[in-house]
Sequence to fold (847 residues):
Amino acid sequence: MEGVSQEVALGRSFEKVNAILKKHAYNPSNLVGILQEVQEEYRYLPEEILTYIATALGVSPAYVYGVATFYAQFSLKPKGKNIIRVCDGTACHVKGSSAVLKYVREYLGLREGEETTPDLLFTVETVACIGACALAPAMMVNDDVYGLLDEEKVKEILERYEEGREGADGV
Amino acid sequence: MSNGVEKKVVVIDGQEVALNGEKNILEVAKKANIDIPTFCYHSDLSVYGACRMCLVEVEGRGLMPSCSTPPEPGMIIRTNTARVLEARRTILELYLANHERDCTVCERNLNCRLQEMSARMGIKEVRFGERKEKVPKDTSTFSLVRDPNRCILCGDCVRACREIEGIGIYDFTLRGSKAQVEPAFGKKLSEVECVYCGQCAIRCPTAALVVKSEVDKAWEAVLDKEKFVVAQIAPAVRVAIGEAFGLPPGEITTGKIVAALKKIGFDRVYDTSFSADLTVLEEAEEFFKRLQKGERLPQFTSCCPSWVVYAERNYPFYLEHLSSARSPQQMFGSVIKNFVTRLENVPKEKIVSVSIMPCVAKKFEARRPEYVHGEIPDVDIVLSAQETIRMIKSANIDFKELDPVPFDIPLSAGSGAGVLFGVTGGVTEAVLRYAYERLTGKELKEVEFKGVRGLESVREAEVDFDGRTVKVAIVHGLARAQQLIREVREGKRYYDFIEVMSCPGGCIGGGGMPLGYPDYLAVLRKRAEGLYNADRLSPVRKAQDNPAIKFLYEQWLKHPGSETAEEHLHTRYRSRRRISDEVIRIQEAKSAQKVDVAVCVGTSCYLKGSYNLLQGLLKLIKEHKLEDKVSVGATFCLERCSQGPNIRVNDEVISGVNEENLERVFNEEILSKVKE
Fold:
C-alpha cells in the first residue's frame, strides 16, 4: 500500500502547487508570494517544484532560483517540522546564547554544518533579535517564545516537542 | 540654461549638443565623440544601469548613470570631473578586488574590457581585499567555459540569454558579498537549457565566459607530418577575421585567410560556401517536394545548431518540419571524410577535418553522435574565428600584408548564394534562387531577393513563383523565433518556409566572432554588407550553377535527394526532453509479463485533468485486481502536449485520454495486453 500513499503525496503536491499558482493567476510578479505559500506547504522549496513553477509562470528556472536564494526566508533544503530560532541579539549574546545554541544542537545530535535533524523533526537557526531581551537568553520554537534558558530548560522544552510527534502524526 | 531649454540642447564637457530623440546621455555623448566607458550597456539589450562605469555629473543633480538617464534640454553634463573620476576609479577597484587578476595567462588577455578600463584609468593598486576562495571552472560543454572567479556581476550574460535567445539560463543568485551569476541550482551549462550560441560570451567584458579553445589540438594536427589536415572556412568569418588585424569590419579577406592557413601548415583549404551550395540543393529539393505535396510546411531551416537543439528540446511536434539537410559544416565534414579521402587517396584515419566557424555551437554539432562514425568524426576540430585569429597571430604572420591565395580545387568555389549563408536571410535567398527555377522551370534573371534582407528581427516576404505564391519568414534570435512559432502554431500566421538563426544578424553575429566592441550593431551591418558584396562579386550566384557542385554530383552523389545524398548529407532529429524523463513509480507490478503504464502529469496534461486519470486508472486496476500485473507511473512529458492528456502503455503513447473514454482505453489498451 506504500505505492498508494506515494501516489497521494504526488497528487497532493501538484494539486497544492497548482492551487497556489492559480490563486496568483499565474502572474510572475507574484513570485515571492507564490514561493512563500509553497514553502509553507512543504517547509522548503524542492528543486522540481521550483522548476515546475518556472515552467508554469513562463520564466526561466534560473530566475526563480535567483529569487529563492535572494531571500533568507526561503530554504532550498528540507526544513524540520519544528523550527527552533535561537536568539543571538545583543542581550541574548551577552547572557550566553552561544551556550544555548550548543545545548540545543547537542540535544538534537546535529553534526557540524547540519541544521536539520535527519528525521526532519527539528531545524535550528539563529536570529538577530526576537524582542524578548528581558528574558535573555531566549529562543522560539515555531511561534512560541521561551526565555531565561539554561541547559535543563532547553532539554525540557525539546522533550515536549519530541513527545508531540505521535500526536502530530495521529492527525 | 533657459537658453539651452529653448534650443533643445545640452552642454556636455563644454560642448553644445542638439538633442534629437536620444534615449540617454550616453548616446548624446557619443554624438559629441565622447567615449564614456561602460560594462553593462549594450545597444541591443535592455538598459540595466548596474555597472556604474558610465557615471557623469549633471549640474544640480550630482552623479548620474549616463546609460539610464534621459537627456533633458538645458542639462549641463560633465564626464570627467574629479568626482566622476574618483567614483569611477573606486568602482573599478571594487571590481578588480573580486576578479582573478592573472591577466597574462588569461584567455581574454588584451581583449578584455576590464583590463582595458583599468589601463585607461591608470589603476596601479587595489585598496580592497581579495576574495579568497576559488570556485571551480565549468568546462562541461564543448563550446564554452565559465569561470566564476572572473565574473564582475555586470549581468550582460543574464540579459543576453534572456532577451536574445529567450532562454535565460543565468541569473543573479544569493546577495550581498555572496552574490553570483549562475545557472539555476548552481548547475553546469551542460545540465541546463544552454544552446551553446555564445551570445553571453561575446558580451562578457571579462573572461568569465569564453569560447572553449581547440587551438592546441589544431596545432598538434598541423604539426603532425603523418596527418593530412583539411580546413573549411565558413562564409561569415571572411568578413570578420581582418578586424583583429586592423582591417575594417566587412572587408572580404578570404584569400588572406587561405594564405594564412597554408602558411600555418594546412594541407588543403576549402570553402564552406561550397557545401552551403550543397545544402541549398538538398534543402531546396526537399522544399520543392513538400510544396508539391503540400506536406510538412512550413519547412524550417536546419543549419543553425543552436536552433536545432532548441527545437529538439521544445518543439518535438515540429521536428518533421525541419529540413533534414545537414548544415554546411557537417556536409563538408562528410565530403571530406568520404570523398576527399578518395580524391587525395588518404585513408580516413589520417585525415583531420578542421572547420573555421563564426559559431561556438558548431563545436557541439560536430560531436553529435550521428556525425561520429565509430571513433571517427566527420569534423575533428572546430575553430571559432577568435581561435583562428590567435593561431594566425602565434604563427608570426603579418595578416594585413598577405597576398591572397585561392581555395584548393576541385571543390574550390562556392557560389554567391552559398556565401549568403553567413547573414540572416541568406539561406532563404539562396534556397529561393534554386527553388524558383526548379518550380517554374524558368531561368531566374533577378537573383537578389531584397525583401528578405535587413537586420529587423522578423522579416517576411511573398515570392511569386509563376502564379504560386511562396510565403517565407526569416527570424534571428530565438526569443523572437519563439514568438513567431507561437503565432504560427495558433494559426495567426502562415508560411511555407521559415529560416531561424539563433544569433542576431545570423552567423556574422556568431558567438565565436571577434567581439565587435564598442558599436556592435554597426559592426554587424558592415559584416552583412561585406557578404552581400562577396555575393555580388561572385562569378556564379546560384548554387545550381556551381560547376564544382555539378562535379561532386557527377562523381559521387548522382542527384539531390539520391540514396547516397540521403546517407551522407541528411540527418534525423530526436526529441530531447526538457524535464528528465524518469518515471515516478506509483505502483510496481511483480509479474514478469507486467504491462507498464505511465500517465503524463506534465503541465499541459495536468491542466487537462491527467491527475484524475491517474486516480481513475488506479481504481480500475484495483477493481480488476491487477495490481500485480500492471505497473503505474507518472511521467513528466510525453511531448504531445497539444493532444493531451497522454498516457503511455508499454512503448505506445495514447493521446486524448479523458475521464469518459478511460474505461474503454483501459479495456482496449491495457486489459487486452494483460490477457495476452
